Amino acid sequence: MRKALGLLRRVIVYEWRMWRSLFRWLLRRPVAPSEEAGAFGYIGAVRPILIAFIALSAVEIPIFDVIIRHTMSWQAAREVALGLGIWGVLWMIGLYAALQIHPHVAHPAGLRVRNGFSVDFTVPWEAVARVDARYRSLTGSRTVQVERTEAGTVLNIVTGKQTSVDLVLHRPLSVPLPSGPSEPATEIRLYADDPGALVRLARQHLPTPNPTTRPR
């Protein structure tokens, strides 16, 4: 019973945050960083897919309406199908909006890593040893993926099965995730549309001089 209530609560919170993101996006009220911070989007890797899904879902609404109208005489079924279709389109737009208005933010205290409203944690600069830009492809589609290597545990925050920025840490660091605290990671990888710009700004915030490295 407790697990069922916990799951219901997470669903309600997720739904509420999705609708809130949609309204903020429509009202052009993004979560703006301070003057000393820089915002970096990550929606570019999935934008074409999301737009395609939204367009296809919108086209399906009148098609299903015509099919139900000519095959069923039950008006309530048509109204339910229409309502679900409209809800589905708005839900997809809300997901797009969440990714759009919640960028990564590099500020004086650290790098705020995000993925919509589901992933949101800050890596303090004093914990970062090195920042590099490197595109990597992953096989899984999950947003949060963990790799265990000889050098330590790698936490991947994935967008479109990709990461493009590597944060190598001085020591293992645990960060809050939707499922609870992560296991301590020695490296955190994330995706940004402009990894070069994020890396340049991040290196300016590092407390110790960042060693000059050739792009890998």
Account of the protein in words:
- It contains 4 helices and 11 strands, in the order H-E-H-H-E-E-E-E-E-E-E-E-E-E-H.
- The chain is of the alpha+beta class and 216 residues long.
- The chain has helices spanning 2-26, 47-71, 75-101, 195-205, and strands at residues 38-40, 104-107, 110-115, 119-124, 128-137, 144-149, 152-157, 162-173, 176-177, 180-181, 185-190.
- Strand 3 (110-115) and strand 4 form a beta hairpin.
- It is 41% helix and 29% strand.
- A 5-stranded mixed sheet has the order 5-8-11-7-6, with helices on one face. Strands 1-2-3-4 form a 4-stranded antiparallel sheet, with helices on one face. A two-stranded antiparallel sheet has the order 9-10.
Tell me the layout of helices and strands:
Elements: H1 2-26, E1 38-40, H2 47-71, H3 75-101, E2 104-107, E3 110-115, E4 119-124, E5 128-137, E6 144-149, E7 152-157, E8 162-173, E9 176-177, E10 180-181, E11 185-190, H4 195-205
Parallel strand pairs: 7-11
Antiparallel strand pairs: 1-2, 2-3, 3-4, 5-8, 6-7, 8-11, 9-10
Helix pairs in contact: 1-3, 2-3
Q: State the helicity in percent bands.
A: 40-55%
- The span between the termini is 51 Å
How many β-strand runs?
11
Structural class: alpha+beta
